[in-house]
Target: Periplasmic mercury ion-binding protein
Amino acid sequence: MKKANLGLIIFLVTLIITACGNENKVETTANGNNTKSVTFTITEMDCSSCPFVVKSSLERVKGVKTVEVTITEGVQGTAKVVFDASKTDVKTLKNTVLELGYGVKQ
Model:
């Protein structure tokens, strides 16, 4: 039980640190599995439903665990994705957003 709590705490701290970083930062969580997180800057999100569209599409990618998409300024936003690196990768996540017609800053 204590191991699970420690793992959860380490994961949450890593997620918070990752959220404060810059675009496209990839961090491996400290719980020893293949879980990674990445934050992208997404451009051309010009309506209030854009974050929902991006989030829904990313959630359908096999291996994605959690997605948070927000508009940060104007038509630009961020997508924070936690995923299983044994099932998907950063390139696949980027391509998913690009196929929707949005831009992804690197």
